[in-house]
Structures are given as C-alpha cells and as structure tokens.
Design brief:
globular, Amino acid/polyamine transporter I, 363 residues, mainly alpha
C-alpha cells in the first residue's frame, strides 16, 4: 500500500514526465504568448475525465482497471479488453523510451545507440517494479524535493533575462486556436488512466489525491510555460526542440557551478523514469492479475525486449512524432480512456438495475 500523499506526488510527476520534453515547444507555437493558459483548461478537462474514472471504480471497490472488464463482461471478452490495455501501456512506455533517447542523443550523448538507453532504463524499472508498489511510492516521495527545488531555483536564477514585452499583448491569441489543440488533452492528461492501476493500493482512497495531483501539475506546467516565454520569447521558444533545457543552459552563476544544465538534465530524466515506472507496473500487473503466472521474472524479461524493440520502431524522427500527436493522439486515447470505461459503466448500470428488479420479483 502507498499513502495518499505518495500517490499525489506520483500523479504530479507522472504528468510532468515527458511533457516538459515534448510539448513545451508545440504549446508555445500553438498558443503564442498566451500558451500558459492551455494547461489550465486542459487540466480542467483532465479533472472531469478523472471524475468519470472514479465513478466507474467506485462500483468495483478493490478492483483495478484491468480487473473490471473481467467482472463486467466475463472471462473471454474481459480478457481480450485487458490485453488491449496491456498493449496500450506498452505503447505508451515505448513512446516514453523513445522520447528519452531522443533527448539524450540530442543534448548529451549523441553517439550512443538509442537501444542502450532503452535497455538501461528498462532493467532498472523492472527491478524497481518487482519490489512492489511501496518501493515505487517511496522512491518518488524521496526524490521529489530534489527535483522540485533545483528546477525552480534555476528558473528563478534565469529571470535576469526576463522581458515582460515578450508576453504582450496579453490575451491576444486566438482562443479558438488554443481550444482546437485537442491532442494536449490526450497527452498527457488522458494517459493518466494508467494511474488507476494503483487506485486499490492507496490508503483511504485515491480519488482526492489524484484530482489534486492533476490540478497541481497543470499549474506547474502553466508556470513553466509562462517562464519560458518570458525568458526566451515567442519566436525563439517555438523553434527550439527543448526550450526548458536552453533556458537552463543560459543561466550564468559563475565558476562555482559550471554544468548546472547537467543537473536539470538529470531531473528531467528522473521525471521520465517515474512515468516509465507507472507504465511498466501497469503492464506487469495486467499480466499478473489476468493470467496469474507463478513466476514473474520471465515476463519482466519479455517486457524489456518488447518495449525496447517498440521504442526503436514507434516513429522515425521527432517531426513524425509531433504529427502523430497532433492528428491521432486524442482519437487513439479516447478509445481506451472514454469509450471502454463508458461501456463498462453502462453495462454495470444495466446489470445492477435488472438485478434489483429480479430480486424484487423473487421476494
């Protein structure tokens, strides 16, 4: 079991994960100087979807997302749906690994093969997940202060380059263009459905810390976008591949701390690792809860091979990744995040309604 506070921190870091890597540039390009508003309305959408999941899970107390189809639709169809969620978690993990290797090749270690990063992170992730959810929760709780304070300290030090004119005119961007960027709803907010795998393991309920985590992460993303635009400007931030990394590189503290951007690189990598932990846990628990194997290490080995290969082939370059994200992410995620839970909820209501009528007639 993990505490509510641990789950709250895990929700925040899961959302921030690859978002700080992948989306900052796209959000600035789409929303202009008002891009910092986008996480606020997207976070509101995430809260509404989260309430929908919580409603479904309350009908099945103590059951995870992949166990509910087994109860609602029986073993054959329920197993098929659970396997779909297993593949969904694997695909998300493959995307995260590829984003990670792209960042490493583009900033620190350009000559290192991508598969080295994939296998290295997967081996550590599988070992951590094998120790149980308590290890994941405690690890995240211990390292969160070391992620939070250095990150915001460096951004505050970078304010020597601040220019308010870069944020003007305020509220000038086209609101319709901001709202039309629906892929932001899919990634990262709809992907938080993987966290529902941990709901039965949170002491005293996971609903409130989950929703608070969504709101906190949205505010953090909004503040980060606000800082990036004020420090780099709209045109420059929209052209850089990793705007946050560039902001840190330009911080001048003196000769005491020479490679402070390396510290931020480690922080961003740890955030990605936390998100990877949740997805590997979801995939491995799906296999355990559905198929009930006697030993788990062969599955972890198979997951390492599968996810590493998937990360290499999931897209060819960051441009292709961006195009897929903008065109298909929301539709793809909606099938797993909205459609299947909706059908499960309708099935549950029908069963309970007819079940009560049958009991009344029999009595």
């Amino acid at each position: 079991m993990i505490s509510r506070f641990q789950f709250y921190l895990l929700t925040i870091n899961y959302i921030l994960g690859t978002t700080l890597f992948v989306l900052i540039q796209r959000l600035v390009k789409q929303g202009g100087q008002d891009a910092w508003l986008m996480p606020l309305w997207a976070g509101s959408f995430g809260v509404l979807v989260g309430l929908f999941w919580i409603l479904l899970l309350r009908y099945y107390p103590g059951r995870s997302l992949v166990q509910i189809p087994l109860d609602a639709w029986g073993r054959p169809l329920g197993t098929f749906v659970s396997v779909l969620y297993f593949l969904f978690f694997c695909i998300l993990a493959g995307w995260i690994l590829r984003n990670l290797s792209d960042f490493m090749n583009g900033t620190i270690m350009p000559e290192t093969p991508k598969s080295v990063f994939h296998v290295m992170f997967l081996l550590v992730a599988c070992y951590t997940v094998a120790q149980g959810v308590e290890t994941v929760g405690r690890l995240n709780q211990v390292i969160t202060p070391f992620l939070f304070f250095p990150f915001w300290l460096v951004l505050l030090l970078a304010t020597v380059n601040w220019d308010w004119e870069r944020l003007q005119p305020v509220f000038h961007s086209d609101l319709g263009a901001i709202l039309q960027y629906h892929s932001f709803l899919g990634f990262p907010y709809m992907e938080t459905i993987a966290l529902t795998m941990l709901f039965p393991l949170v002491k005293q309920g996971a609903g409130r810390p989950f929703l608070l985590g969504l709101l906190t992460a949205s505010v953090s993303l909004s503040m980060t976008l606000f800082m990036v635009i004020g420090l780099l400007g709209l045109e420059r931030a929209s052209r850089l591949t990793f705007p946050v990394y560039t902001v840190v590189q330009e911080v001048s503290i003196g000769e005491v701390i020479v490679n402070i951007h390396s510290i931020i690189s480690v922080i961003l990598l740890i955030l990605i690792f936390i998100k990877l932990l949740v997805l590997v846990y979801g995939a491995s628990e799906t296999l355990r809860q559905v198929f009930r194997p006697k030993t788990r290490w062969p599955h972890f080995l198979a997951l390492t091979i599968l996810l590493s290969a998937m990360a290499l082939s999931i897209y060819e370059n960051p441009i292709q990744n961006g195009e897929w994200d903008e065109k298909y992410t929301f539709i793809y995620d909606s099938f797993f995040v909205l459609l299947i839970p909706f059908l499960l909820l309708v099935t549950t209501w029908i069963k309970r309604t007819f079940g009560k009528r049958i009991k009344r007639r029999m009595s």
